Amino acid sequence: MTGVLLFFVGVLTLAGIYAILAMTLNLEAGWAGMWDLGLVGFVAVGAYTYTILTQTKFDDVIIHPQLPIWVGMLGAAAAAAAFASVIGLPTLRVRGEYFLITTLAFAEVVRQVAVNTQTITRGTIGFSELSRPLEGTFPGTGNRIVLLVIVWIGVVLVYLLLRRIAHSPYGRLLRGFRDNDPVARSLGKATNHHRLRTYILAGALYGLTAPMYLWYLRSVTPHLFAPDITFVTWTALVIGGIASKRGPIIGAVVLLVLTESVSLIQGSANLAVILASMRFVVLGLLLILIMRFRPNGLTDERSAFATVQSSDSL
Amino acid sequence: MRARLRRVVILMVIALLVAACGDGEGTDTTGAGGTSTTSGSVTTAGGGEEGPIKVGFMIGVTGDYAPYYPPSEAGALIAIEEINAAGGVLGREFELVIGDNLSTAEGAVQAFNKLVDVDSVVAIGGVESDGAVANLQSIKDRQIPTICPACGTDKLDEAGGDYIWRITGSDSDGGLIAAQFARDSGYTRVAMLVQNTEGAAGPALVFKAVFTEMIGGEVVVDVRFEPGQASYQAQVDEVFAAEPEAVYLAAGFESGGIILQEAARRGVETNWLFSPDLIVPEIAGLPGVDLSGGVARAAIAAYDTSSPAYESYAARYEEMTGDAPSSGLYDANQYDQYIILALAMAAAGTTDGPAVAAEIAGILNGPGTVVYTYADGLAAIEAGEDIDYHGASSGLDVNEFGNLASPVFGEQNIVNGAWTQVAEVALDESLR
Amino acid sequence: MQNIIFGLVSGSILALAAVGFSMIRQTEGFINIAHGQMLTVGAFLGFIFVNSLGLNVFVAGLVVMIAVGLLGVVLALIVFEPVSANGALAQLFTSIGLAYVMYGLIRVVFGAKVQFYPNLFGRRFDFTNFNVTVGELVIVGLAGASTVGLHLFLTRTRLGTWIRATASNPELARLRGIPVRRVSISVWFVASALAGLAGVMLGVIGNVNSELGWTQILMILAAAVLGGLGSIYGVLAAGLLLGLVMDLSAMIIPSTWRLVVAFVVLVLVLVFRPRGLFAKAERKEAA
């Protein structure tokens, strides 16, 4: 039985990472009404920045300062935030579906840049054998538990930060923009300024999550940053309950636990293709059923953060 | 709020129960097509002293590599059947446990954890490049002997040997040989058409370096493309507009097939140099495309078709799938990896990771009694002899880094709609 | 010049798929991610009809259109209709869920194998600096004919007029007695049928594989957005434009950057025309 528990250590670590991503997406989409389909782009920027700053194995790239991990993390957050501020200007001029596609476009651009700049990112080959924090002190299995703890400390910190924002006047303002209420609109140009701030904050948080993801995978290639991460994050958020505070965490955990549990079902080899495809069917059915019977997600936090039913032109 | 949370908790408990029960559910290793059934079994954790020995098959059942799954599965199942027909390993049944890596690095980490934590496998095969690299450290930490049948990544050029081996050639070699072909045919102007994935970009990098720097040729145009598109007309056009003497094509067969069909439609004739990924039946039998007569040349760590191991394997593979083994699909490699693992366990007398790992180089390298099947190997081991297993995919001698010591490469051309080995190729080491 | 032909071919196929997508968006009010899977189903069915049943490819195409059209209607009734009360977000994610379910089932039913059509392109005509095959002309021609057919349908038939009315203002349409449900079913049929046809075409020029739905849906979304969500003809033009831009750009920049170019162009267009190239005024603004 301990083997199963150990397996779920890994699952919960991944769930924690997606929980942070989902909470950040919640800030953007659930509270500020910005439907971001390009969040993986920020993760990519953060990931490559972190790797380039800290990796020690490869010297065929032009930049390899081999800085300590915490510097790498700050660098990742800063780079992602900077990226957000640069693309925020054109992106935030558009709304709704247009915003969706623009964010998606930028994320793909990031990935293509990673693929094509051999001298900085090592192209499609990427980096491998990245080190984890506290590897020396806690070798082997202990390391996985350490990672779990680190990730969930991150979850708690981000949760507290976002809760703070939620209850602040700033948070109320964000909801105002989302719901297009007259008070918010009367601010005129300041609207864009606040949305940009939110976008940059979200970018920084995504960037900060990237190193955790890399600790888990120990390698980075452009292939990692296909839209899959974006879709899983969105699914986790929606399942958990968009705009609620705990929703993203619950959604991420439920989603990952369920899909990974499906993979534990064994069968004979020639059923493997069918079983493996069932993972997607299960995921899809989960989404369909929740949207049908519990469209506000699994949690049901009311209060001022009711779900975004008003802006429903999607 | 409480009620909701309770429901969520119930959901999670159910999931955990499913997982726990999943550990001992109906696992069996029946061959495909419902032929002989070695008994399925329900046991508690494998890897203990009782019950079947579980080995992992960590591979892309879904995702980008899914097309390679059916031949890989066939190769693996043939090995398992052979092993169990000879009495299993250490008197216990050899059992295959599948872990789908979703053809991604994230999936590979998950699959590895599932196989090792939940299924308690003692060794793993089937691994692909992304997965091998992502799990390198874990493989060493958990001491799980792992064999990669088809990893070409150059990240494994020096990383293996203690717990991970790969029984195919490195991408670096693949690229080098293509450049060698170019030189031998006297090409000085070559166009490159390369897919933006590691498996294609890797050998391409080597090809370009060798061809331009060591051989002094000119790459007239280097066109890169993303996999998964529906059409590559513009890329094909760009390549032929440069009027090359030959085209080096490095791609998966999904996009490679589209490109070749497009070239045929446009009526262009040229000489092709292929990366190993294209040595698959889908390309040889591509409708509307005729590449016979040496127009398309490729090289891959060759299957030694005269070896008794290969002949015996090929007959069974043909019976199971209706096709001949194909080096580009690595099915014989999938077969060999499990024979190797089984023999290593027999030689070590245990399934314990470090002990098994220590035996692998010994049973693959000489000196020793040369054996071609599991049964023969087992008999020799029980008689106290050192063995030297020659497999269906190659002679399988490995070096200190867990790579094939001197992979024999075979040039492949398309003959009568199928890839056929036409000659052996010796790597010109001076080109490195 | 050659690249213009390529662009037209891929653009026509994209336009066909995007038009249906856009129609659904307008009359049903949400983005249907499962639309991409309709292409995949069409591609596989078409391949089976041609390869295993030996049907002529045009006949196969027609049968596929009808089959996929019906499939779209059935799925709409079973999956989407019950959720319509829950809002556009719920519908969007239902469509994603449906896309996943379809993807899984496609792999089970049709297998994961990649398939290639026999060469159906026919004779090639060579001109001085380009060449074109019969098949390519057929694809562009068919797409054009479908467009004309769609136009006539939307403008000359009663049902078509109803569809346009519902697309521009559903509440008003209902008030005026237009049978909204019949309109809805028709839209689902037409949109899905066009997607099925586009899938067959994709299979013919490229290959048939289970990932088609996911790789195409993003381009479809891009074309729909670029064209301006209120305009069907805009979407058609946008699809063609995207195809042309991607293939023509290969002439000036190294093809490694092709996709980047396509997306940068997209972003630039939206910066200067935030409602798409041909958008009419929208009646509601998303967040």
Task: Tell me what the structure shows.
The model of chain A is unreliable at 302-314 (pLDDT under 50). Chain A has 314 residues and is mainly α. Chain A has a domain at 11-225. Chain A has helices at residues 2-31, 39-54, 69-91, 96-116, 118-121, 141-167, 169-179, 182-185, 190-217, 228-240, 247-263, 272-293. Chain B is built from 13 helices and 14 strands. With 287 residues, chain C is mainly α. Chain C has one domain (2-272): ABC transporter involved in vitamin B12 uptake, BtuC. In chain C, a hairpin with a 4-residue loop joins strand 1 (124-126) and strand 2. Chain C is globular, with a radius of gyration of 19 Å. The model of chain C is unreliable at 281-287 (pLDDT under 50). The chains are: A mainly alpha (314), B alpha/beta (432), C mainly alpha (287). The interface between A and B is large, with 56 and 68 residues.
Low-confidence runs of chain B (pLDDT<50, min 5 residues)?
19-47
- The averaged pLDDT of chain C comes out at 85
Mean pLDDT of chain B: 83
Helicity level of chain B, as a percent range?
40-55%
Which percent band covers the strand fraction of chain B?
A: 15-25%
Distance between the termini of chain B: 67 Å
Outline of chain C, from the CA principal axes?
A: globular
The SSE order of chain B reads HEHEHEHEEHEHEHEHEHEHHHEHEEE
Largest sheet of chain B: 7 strands, mixed
Spatial order of the strands forming the largest sheet of chain C:
1-2
Number of strands of chain C: 2
Superfamily (CATH H level) name of the largest domain in chain B: Response regulator
Helix content of chain C: over 70%
Individual helix count of chain C: 11
Tell me the span between the first and last alpha carbons of chain C. 42 Å
Q: How many distinct beta strands of chain B?
A: 14
